[in-house]
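Predict structure. Chain length: 401.
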Amino acid sequence: MGLNSTPSGNRIHISFLGRRNAGKSSVINAVTGQDLAVVSDVKGTTTDPVYKAMELLPLGPVMMIDTPGVDDEGNLGQLRVQKTKQVLRKTDIAVLVIDSTVGLGELEKEWIALLKERSIPILIVWNKMDLVSEKPMFDSEISQVFVSAFCGEGIEELKETLARFTPGEKKEQPLVADLMKPLDTVILVVPIDSSAPKGRLILPQQQVIRELLEVRAVSVVVKDTEYKALLEKMKDKPKLVITDSQVFEQVSKNTPDEIPLTSFSILMARKKGFFKIASEGVRVLDKIGNGDKILIAEGCTHHRQCEDIGTVKIPGWIRKYTQVKPEFVFCSGTEFPEDLSAYKLVIHCGGCMLNEREMQYRMQLAKEQNIPFTNYGIAIAHMNQILERSLRALDKHIDTE
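Prediction complete.
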C-alpha cells in the first residue's frame, strides 16, 4: 500500500477556488510541489475540476481539487461554474485564491457568503504578491495568507495555515471496531460473482478487515456458497456475521437467531452518519405504487455488469416485493440531482467512495424536501424481513454470553 492508498472518502478535501487567471493552478502546484494543474496566461485553462490524491504534511492524506474559474462566461462557462459548485458538496476546506493586482470584488464576496452558508472553512490566499507594493486590506475574521506562487514566497505559511484547519477534533465513526474485543471472531460473507471486481475485494470489505486487525479481532472470510458448511464446522459461535447485501436472504436463513448478523452496507450507513434516517426512510417501500419514481444513486462510476446490483438486482427485488411497477431513475458519481421533488424514495449505495460531507449533503437535500432516504443494504434487509435483526447486531453490547 502506497502513500495514496487511503480511500477518497477518508481524505480531507481541499478545493482551490477563484477567478480565471487568479493563479489557482499555480498556487496548488506550489503547495503540492508538482505540476498537478496546467498553468497558462490564457483565462479558463482549467475547464473541469482536477483531483489529486496525495499526502500533504502535516495534514496527512488529502484530496486536492483545482476548479474552473468562478467568473467563467457564456453557456459553457456557466456549466463549468456549476461543476465548481458541485465540488462544494464534498469540500472540507475552501481556499479562495485572489489576484492581489486585481483585488477582492463582489463576486468573491458572494462566494464567501456561499461558503459560510454551507459552513465550509475558508482560507483566503492573496496571490501575485511579487507584483504589488502593499498588502491588500480585507477587514474579515477569515484567515488570510499572502503568497507569490511564481516566486514561492508564503507557500510554507500557506501549508502551515491549512494544517490548522484539520478537522482532527472530530472522532471518526468506525465501521465495526467499536463492536469487537480482541480475539472475537467475525465471519465475512463475500460472494464472488460476475459483478465482483476482478482480483480484489470491494472497499467496505477491505476496511472492515483492517479495522478488525486493528482491534486484534479475528476475521474469517468465506464465499456465500461455503458459509453454511463453515458455520457447522466452527466449535465456537462467531460474535458477528457480516454479509454482502446481495446474499442477505440466504445468509440469514443459514444463521441461527442467536448469532448477530448485519451487512457491509448497513455498517457503512452507520459510519457515514445516515443510519437513523435510512432505517426510517426504507418504510416507504411498503407504500410504493405503480409509476412512482425511485432514484437509485451510486457515489462512484463503474462499468455496469449484466447483474449490476444498482440497476438490475435492486429494481427486480423491489418489483417482486411491492408487486407493482415503479419507475427507476439512476445516477452515479457527482451527478446527484438537487431537485428531488419528483421521487418517492432515494436509495443510495453505501457511499464508500464519498466523504462524509458529501453524504451529509445528499441526505440533507432529501430531508429538506421531505423525500425518504435509505441505502442498498437497509432496503435489501427490509425486503427480506430481516432489518430488525440486522439492526440489533449494531448494539455495542453484542456479547451474547
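Summary: The longest strand covers residues 12-18.
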